[in-house]
Amino acid sequence: MEIKKCPFCGGEARIAKTELTTHAMLIWVKCTRCHNHTASIKTASHEEQAMQESIERWNRRAV
Ligand SMILES: [Zn+2]
Question: Helix or strand or coil: residue 46?
Fold first, then answer.
């Protein structure tokens, strides 16, 4: 799925990920220019699903 450009500054948005433990991670989408971001999603083993959801949340943002 394509990540839309930032609605605030037009910058590139990327998936960000932090591993909390070996069984939990946080995934969110953030702008590389203005650092605006979505709320993070905590997941255990559904990384792909969490990424999709993060992208959908980001793409739904109104300008
Ligand atoms: Zn931005």
Answer: coil
Q: Rounded to the nearest whole angstrom, what is the distance from the C-alpha of residue 3 to the centroid of ligand 1? A: 12
Does the model's pTM come out above 0.85? yes
Alpha-carbon distance 36 to 18, whole Å?
Answer: 17
CA of 19 to the centre of ligand 1 (A): 24
Tens of pLDDT, residues 16-46: 999 999 889 999 999 999 999 999 999 998 9
Alpha-carbon distance of 21 to 41, in angstroms, equals 14
**Domain map of the chain by residue range?**
13-59
Q: How far apart are CA 46 and CA 48, in angstroms?
A: 6
Q: Running DSSP on this structure, what letter comes out for residue 44?
A: S
